[in-house]
UniProtKB/TrEMBL annotation:
The lineage of its organism: Bacteria, Pseudomonadati, Bacteroidota, Cytophagia, Cytophagales. Residues 221-461 form the Histidine kinase domain. SUPFAM superfamilies: ATPase domain of HSP90 chaperone/DNA topoisomerase II/histidine kinase, Homodimeric domain of signal transducing histidine kinase. It is an enzyme of class 2 (transferase). Residues 143-180 form a coiled coil. This is histidine kinase.
């Protein structure tokens, strides 16, 4: 192959090299990846211009100068691509440049030594040059595809990173909102706890008020109930005093009558027995009042429910009569004589009976005040043994409970009485005492205009 390249071709090579350098710099993003080498590539044309100028001054002309320059350009590009070996498109371009660089190295070497091989194998070298050039272009397109794929992956990673940052920002905002909401809920919880504490204190006061109201009714009943045995005690004491006076007078007489003395002593003994009986009755009433006023110990004791029900029937009746002297009602105790003692908290169950009986007398009194012709207030208390349970029924013939409120009567603070006459806790406390305190049941059966019956069912064992 005859050399056809002269000194002037250096300028052409310089312009081509500069254009390729700019294209490579943009393609491989050299300002970002290799900024110093990118600066060097900007001056890749300088060696060619300087060489051309010097050759022109000295009058030197040789085709080898342009070949040397171009071989140097390819070597410089190869070095840059080698430094970018971590970047896949750069490695692909380096592989594509290798055949062309090897061709120029061989052809430049043969030109330098003046070998005739270039001329002998001119067609072969031309074919090799074309093949190396096509090889470079093929690998350039491969590298471009790789770059697009990398850019797509980088764009995807950037979007994922952006989405990640957005999620982190949203999470941070959510954490802030959750923190604010948690603080608000904590504040509300503190306020609710404070309100609950106040509510419990108020409830305790209301329960105590209900107990005191129950105790007031019990005390009024006791005051009237205890009056009977006290009257008997006083009367028999007066009679006994008269008998003693008569006995003393008889003993002071000159002629004593032994038969009269024996009769007076027998009457005196009988009076003392009556005083003892009615004194015991009064003591029993006082003892019941004390038990009712004491706090429950929680220990159940076998109790005669007949006696308990009868006692509270009369106490409730006299309690209402203490408020209304004109009130009278028929009491109908109906007790099972075979009823065994049942282990209960007597004072608690007494409160239940007192509440139910007080409500019963209140109901019949209300109906009586309506002035119905032929109406006779009646309250009935009965006890029965039913299997393994004992039933206590409290029935009245009052006005009855409306169907609309029957389901609410055991709810705390619910009452059908006018304001000031009920707290709405009596039946609620009674329900808790029977169901929770004794494991029994408390139910109601009522019909308007006919009356109401409360049923207490307690286990015997």
């Amino acid at each position: 192959m005859t050399p056809r390249i002269g000194n002037a071709d250096l300028l052409l090579y310089a312009s081509v090299a500069f254009g390729i350098a700019r294209a490579v710099s943009k393609f491989l993003d050299l300002p970002k990846r290799l900024p110093r080498w990118d600066q060097a590539l900007r001056y890749i044309w300088v060696p060619a211009v300087v060489t051309y100028g010097l050759a022109l001054l000295v009058g030197f002309r040789s085709p080898v100068l342009a070949e040397y320059y171009w071989l140097g350009v390819e070597s410089f590009f190869g070095l840059v691509l080698l430094l970018l070996g971590y970047y896949r498109p750069a490695r692909t371009l380096l592989l594509g440049l290798a055949p062309l660089w090897f061709y120029h190295l061989l052809s430049t070497g043969l030109l330098t030594v003046g070998s005739g091989l270039l001329k002998t194998y001119d067609d072969g070298f031309d074919t090799a040059k074309i093949f190396a050039t096509l090889w470079l272009f093929c690998f350039f397109f491969i590298a471009r595809g790789q770059k697009k794929q990398i850019e797509k992956e980088e764009l995807q990673r950037a979007e994922e990173e952006k989405a990640k940052r957005l999620i982190e920002a949203q999470n941070a905002e959510l954490e802030r909102l959750v923190g604010e909401r948690t603080a608000a809920l904590t504040t509300q919880a503190e306020e609710l706890r404070g309100a609950l504490t106040e509510l419990r204190a108020t409830q305790a006061q209301l329960v105590q008020s209900e107990k005191m109201a129950s105790l007031g009714e019990l005390t009024a009943g006791i005051a009237h109930e205890i009056q009977n045995p006290l009257n008997f005690v006083n009367n028999f004491a007066e009679v006994s005093a008269e008998l003693v006076t008569e006995l003393e007078e008889e003993r002071a007489r000159p002629e004593r009558d032994p038969g009269l003395e024996d009769e007076l002593l027998a009457d005196l003994k009988q009076n003392l027995v009556k005083i003892t009986q009615h004194g015991g009755r009064a003591a029993s009433i006082v003892r019941g009042m004390l038990e009712h006023s004491r706090t429950s110990s929680g220990e159940r004791t076998p109790t005669d429910l007949n006696q308990l029900a009868d006692e509270y029937l009369r106490l409730a009746y006299h309690g209402l009569r203490a408020k209304d002297k004109t009130f009278n009602a028929t009491l109908e105790p109906d007790f099972d004589p075979s009823l065994p003692p049942v282990p209960v908290l007597a004072q608690d169950l007494g409160r239940v009976l007192l509440n139910l009986l007080s409500n019963a007398f209140y109901a019949v009194r209300q109906r009586q005040q309506r002035g119905e012709a032929g109406y006779a207030p009646t309250v009935r208390v009965s006890t029965r043994r039913v299997g393994d349970d004992v039933e206590i029924r409290v029935r009245d013939n009052g006005g009855g409970i409306p169907e609309s409120v029957k389901q609410k009567i055991f709810q705390p603070f619910f009452t059908t009485k006018p304001t000031g006459e009920g707290t709405g806790l009596g039946l609620s406390l009674s329900y808790d005492i029977v169901t929770q305190g004794h494991g029994g049941t408390l139910t109601v059966d009522s019909h308007e205009g006919q009356g109401t019956e409360f049923l207490i069912s307690l286990p015997v064992g």
